[in-house]
What we know:
By secondary structure, this protein is mainly beta.
Amino acid sequence: MMSPLLMFSQDISGKIIDQDNNPIIAAYIINARTMAHFHTNDLGYFKISDALSGDTISVSYLGFEKYIFVVKDFESDIEIKLKEARIELSEVVVNQGRNQTNVLSSIDVILNPVKSSQELLRKVPGLFIGQHAGGGKAEQIFLRGFDIDHGTDINISVDGMPVNMVSHAHGQGYSDLHFIIPETVDMVDFGKGPYYADKGNFGTAGYVAFKTKDNLENSLFSIEAGRFNTVRSAALLNLVKNDHHNLYLASEYHITDGPFESSQDFSRRNIMLKYTSKYENNSILSVIASNFYSKWDASGQIPERLVNDGTISRFGAVDDTEGGVTGRSNVAIDFTQPIDNNTFIKSNIFYSRYDFELYSNFTFFLEDPINGDQIRQKERRDIWGIQSVWHHGLDLKKGDAELKVGVGGRFDQVLDNELSYTKNRTETLNRVQFGDVDENNIYAFSEANIEIGKWSFQPSLRFDFFRFNYLNALDTLYTNEGKNASLASPKFNIIYNLNRNVQLFAKSGIGFHSNDSRVIIEEEADAIVPRAYGLDLGANYKPLSRLYMNTALWYLFSEQEFVYVGDAGIVEPSGETQRLGLDVGLRYQVNNWIYANGDFTYSHARSVNEEEAESYIPLAPVITTTAGLNIDKGNLKAGIQFRYLQDRPANEDNSIVAKGYNITDVNASYQIGRIILGVTVENVFNQEWNETQFATESRLRNELNPVEEIHFTPGTPIFIRGSLKYEF
Length: 728
């Protein structure tokens, strides 16, 4: 018979950390007797309810050895240090977290770390990118039936700093991620749809949040070299590394001519300093300072008719004077202050200085048959931001709850926001747009996660206030017009954990992306901040011990909006749109060292108020597929990745089609002591493919009439590069 002492249940609390004393967030904890499960919070703290002496508790987290202990002591907090280990999918429990889709990206980052800035966004399943301006311009993004351009409908951040640029000279939401040094990326957090209260502007198709490492496992020097006169060097140096203080310096320098007949003359330099301090009261301070600079030339998008008749090659140019210069400097401070084991406040403040100058020519001699149609887009920007979020855990009689309440603001001051027609980059012919933008966004949000038995309910609400100001320097009289907008965005998600291997979910919510300040002032648009209404129904499940899958059926409706076309300085109404689709992702562990991955997406995107034959949304992806194998066997790491983008409409009636492509990349590395030798081959089968495509009306110098057809930037042919790394 069990003694009274052993029958008396109590709570157990503690903290879970890694080998470098960093808190492990969302570790999965289960009591073998009751099968009740628990999670660590953002500080690594946990609490186990109704434990008895003698209970067996297991702790697991992806990429770490499982830790098992028997309850003996109820008096003191437990500190558990997990050891890194090979990924074992059989240990993954489907109901161990609220955002289970991140399991897919976590596996990918561990098995195949980010190797270039172009790969950053590709870690999000179903997201495709394209580069079309010499390597220095932000990538074009495709996700869930959206041609997102450079960021209109996806919220992107790095260490809490927004990447999307509001009222940008080139386009709303412009997101240049090239200031991230790939080797510093620690985590890629993402979510699809408008279901996340802490993600505001641009969060309609989804969000991506990158986190850099708080400390380095080792210092590192690396050098890469490959075709097209490509050289990249990187250095990551531990300056201070102990239990309480970490300071490291990271830098990179990258040059390439690219595969084009007219050299890209591309160069980029990055430097970042990050300091992290952990105090005795468990508070954490992190400070980041970084600087980024890039310059390049570009051959632009070329018309098919010139390639088809042999006038130029696929890597030729009509106007090779395109290109640009851009730079960004950041300072960010994060501070996490624990109140108790269940409550903490996380605050961050940042400042960014941003410079941008881009030269393009999309239509050649359509507008100006003498000088050509080259344009300059330019701006200087200062961004300030602050956010503070209160987190609190609650014990309920029949479950647990987590509460989160946050407030913050972002303030953009843009000077000399310009669109001008130019000649040979040096002569200004005509200014189309020129002025200053002052745009402010103040917000608050609250959300809860209430777990009762197998159910989890996640209601949330976000409130945003915007102030838009634009001073048009081209007006003969001084005018400084401003408008306000405020909106509430409710969201509600439900999760049902059928068992350890099946999790069902339903997500619903309203999101938005703001319009360019110039649209709001000039058009007097009623829909200052158009809304998007979304619904996801899906499941995360493990049909086999080592097979993890995610499936979602989704729908998204977007309101009428006015779109500022930065390349032309005009405003175009887009009308209402609706999108629906299917996402499927899987990760399979073939054996102890071979891992397979696959992602499939189908999207049906249409304009609502147009005739069916005229309702296609240009460049909206229909079917995308990625698949691959990764090998992680001792000192050998290797991988092969395949991506496929189906043909898609390039205009509203689908009379012009953007051709699809399928590309295969391979990589391998081998470690000998402190030295790592590697090789990467992109487009291993040397496919001819178009990385970006647009249906564009253009006229060449010798043409009497304009022609509308596909203009494209060719994808890179087979690209081999080798690398040498030294860790110490």
